[in-house]
Amino acid sequence: MSKTPAHHKLPWFAAAIARAKATKKDTKPLSNRAGERYSLRVGITVFGSPSYFSLDEAISEFTQFVEQNSKFKLDIVLNKYGPLGLDEYHVMPRMGGCKFVDPKYVKPETRLKLPDGVAVNIMLFDIQSIKVCYGGLAYQKSVYTKNVPFIGIPFGDSIKFWGVEPNWKTKVGTTLVHEFYHALTYIFRAKRIKLPNPDKANLYGFKAEEDPGWIKFDKFIYGKIEDETYLTLSQ
Q1: Structural class in CATH, domain 2-230
Q2: Domain range summary for the chain, segments of one domain joined by +
């Protein structure tokens, strides 16, 4: 699991929904004049409604960054629901009593709301009154995540003071970019392909003072996905 430090429909989204409906469950290559791109269907399930940022803007920022810095074409499947039950937040081991969403411990009916036929399931959730452990967390696939990597990302009035990273528009946008790359490492690791570690920027020569918001590093790691790696998605 990765750990990010506590660091309606718009036109673009309508287009993404249209692409998603036309995409089969299996990832397949797409071709266009700019070169070959690869479709990846991503489920985003939201529990609660943020009051201090635009959810559409955050998802748009994430989608645009990934598509501009890789050969992926993301097909977003977005569903929105009311807040989770307070008993669905799990006390994380050895974290001083703070809580987070663990797909193993949410209600079965909550897990059923995660979409089928996606490569990654993402849950954005209002933390309500809980003390949250992480700004984002990526889980490897399991029977509790519909057998695909799972990402949990919190939002809520009590953590809006975390602010926005430099060079980003939303906190959730940058966290989506970071945790989604973790999910990609899980997908490709199963194919015996090792991607750069998104938690080890210094290992690749990047420093916080020279790369505010780690935007250069994020572009670097997405750019390290090679053509041969994309091809394995359709195999």
Answers
A1: alpha beta
A2: 2-230
